[in-house]
Amino acid sequence: MSDVHEAPGRWERWLLSRPDGAALRIVFLGVVALAGTLLAQDILHVAGRTADADRTRRTEPLPLSRPVPGDQIRPYLPRAIPVGPDRGVPVIPGFEGPLDTDATGRRMRFVRTEPSVIAAVGRIDRGTADDLRRFLDGDGKGAAALVLQSPGGSVTDAIEMARLLRERSFSTSVPADGYCASACPLVLAGGTAREAGEGAWIGVHQVYAAGETPTGAMRDLDRSIAEIQSTSAACQQLLLDMGVDPQLWIKAMQTPAAELYVLTRDELASFRVVAAPPTEGS
Q: Which residues are CB-contacts of 87 (< 8 A; sequence separation ≥ 6)?
């Protein structure tokens, strides 16, 4: 053991030179400042979670300006649809009732509107792929086209739906002024021919963890990250298999889950999101 003592540092010398009361006040104020910072962070975190919960529960239409090249990021509402002075009301001939927020925000339902056409309107929930398969084997037997109006939902189900539609040689489309967001474009990609009506909003964003609870808390972080990576790879593989340019996925992964990257008409064509029917022998 050494008897040598190190000289106090500058901060220690300054603190020792203060009266006892002043030193205690400094320590107390530091603790108060730290507590205030932590409290502010907690408040911001809770406020962010509350705002996100409000966004995901919102069912009222949200007025939004039409996206233009260079200005294509819009809020994503999983249970509502965008409206605006330059947007009309989408129509699917033969579909009973308006294609409004109420219809779009509910679980997807399938209606045969014409002998060869099926309307698919609503959210893609877990199990929707099974619903589609049963419908195609029942009331939808013999149909050849699917018209979409959906804010998206379960990516796993959307991928399964796309592969089922391709297997059965369906064409897919989004009506004029329609809405196909989040996982919905994956279903659209399943069509052998794909169309988007004038003014249709077709948008993509990041995959988010299906294991999030209503409060926003995540399950085990490593498991959530692994699930997202696996799902993202499955989405890219689907686009490749369906003939869609996988660079579309770069736009998706650059866009936070709370927002939507709305594709322009030129991008719909260049990414091959819309496509003419294949010619014989192709």
A: 66, 177, 199
∠ at Cα 51 (48, 54), nearest 5°?
150
For residue 150, being part of any structural domain is answered with yes
> CA dihedral defined by 81, 87, 90, 91, rounded to 10 degrees?
160
Over the chain (282 residues), the average pLDDT of each successive run of 10 is: 55 59 57 67 51 55 88 90 84 83 89 96 97 98 97 96 99 96 98 97 85 44 74 95 96 95 98 88 54
Question: Residue 171 has which token pair?
Answer: 């064409």
Is the residue at 6 inside a domain? no
Two structure tokens written together for 4: 């040598």
* Number of structural domains found in the chain: 2
Spatial distance between the Cα atoms of 62 and 40, rounded to a whole number of angstroms: 30
Q: Is residue 70 part of a domain?
A: no
Domain limits for position 40? 20-57
